[in-house]
Design brief:
Layout lengths: L13 E11 L2 E12 L4 E6 L8 H11 L3 E8 L8 E4 L1 H16 L9 H4 L6 E4 L4 H47 L3 H19 L5 H15 L2 H18 L6 H20 L4 H21 L4
Parallel strand pairs: 3-4
Antiparallel strand pairs: 1-2, 2-4, 5-6
Helix pairs in contact: 1-4, 4-7, 4-9, 7-8, 8-9
Length: about 300
């Protein structure tokens, strides 16, 4: 299976399953790997393996860490572990110790009955099971795991590409709102100025036009949202560039969503016109929709 995957964002949500069989003395032992990945701030790996294969956990973790940086990944190996633990032998050192104690008791003139061998086998530690998992079997399991990891990686890339498409659609809609609003700003300020002047003329008999325009200039400066629109444009450009990276980009995208939201909040607080307020709300909705998608990206 090829190790190359397309350069696109990775989703942290995916599932992969791979089935195969081990060759044990001309007998086939079926098994399957299941890998499940969900959202997580950092990389967290959980392994569920048969007891006889616990020694593989370190290699499993190392291989996953080479491929993934974020997400909670659960690894399940479905296999009849008892089939790999058939070697049973006597612990001769334990038997010798028991024999020494029995001999000592008899030497002390205690009436000791003959020891039943079957009862002796029940003594803790007399019978020992030996792990029969060979290096070749371990290598076969780990090689098939590598294929399962590759499959999971491809699924994460595939879903990541879909998330990228959704985010870019939201960016296009956001760009449309900002582009439409920018040329309207001078007219909005002018209408607001005329409206304010008309109200003041109705309320004041001594209208000082020079003072009025000084106040209007101050108001226009405070209500100028061009800077916020420019920063929105810059952040949107950075989001598009980040989406083209083949690195883990989730945290950076999350930061950019925070910056976009900050500018949207400032734009809303400066609003002097219902149209700006409405556009500001629509901008915040789009940013929140993008943020929800970004939470799924590695």
């Amino acid at each position: 299976m090829s190790s190359k995957t397309p350069a696109s964002p990775k989703s942290m949500t995916a599932f992969a399953r791979l089935q195969d069989s081990l060759n044990l003395s001309d007998n086939l032992l079926p098994y399957s790997w299941e890998l499940r990945s969900v959202n997580q701030r950092y990389l967290e790996i959980y392994c569920k393996l048969p007891e006889t294969l616990r020694a593989l956990e370190s290699d499993i973790r190392s291989r996953l860490k080479e491929r993934f940086q974020r997400g909670k990944i659960e690894v399940y190996l479905n296999l009849d572990g008892s089939a790999l633990t058939r070697n049973i032998h006597l612990n001769h050192s334990q038997l010798n110790e028991i024999n020494r104690i029995v001999t000592q008791l008899r030497a002390d003139n205690l009436n000791i009955a003959q020891v039943n061998p079957l009862e002796l086998l029940k003594w803790p530690g007399v019978l020992q099971e030996e792990d029969s998992v060979s290096d070749s079997l371990s290598e076969q399991l780990l090689n098939s795991l590598e294929n399962a990891i590759q499959l999971l990686d491809q699924h994460r890339h595939r879903e990541g590409s879909e998330l990228q498409r959704v985010i870019e659609e939201k960016l296009d809609a956001l760009q449309h709102l900002v582009t439409e609003l920018t040329p309207l700003i001078p007219g909005i300020i002018e209408r607001h100025t005329d409206k304010l002047k008309h109200k003041i003329e109705q309320l004041c008999s001594n209208f000082d036009e020079n003072r009025f325009y000084q106040e209007v200039a101050i108001l226009a400066q405070k209500a100028d949202i061009q800077e916020e629109l420019d920063r929105l444009q810059a952040h949107m450009k950075e989001v598009r560039l980040t989406l083209k990276s083949d690195q883990a980009i989730g945290r950076r995208l999350d930061f950019l969503m925070q910056e976009l939201n900050r500018e949207a909040n400032t734009l809303g607080s400066k609003s002097i016109d219902p149209q700006i307020s409405q556009t500001g709300v629509e901008i915040k909705v789009l940013i929140e929709q993008m943020r929800e998608q970004v939470q799924n990206i590695e």
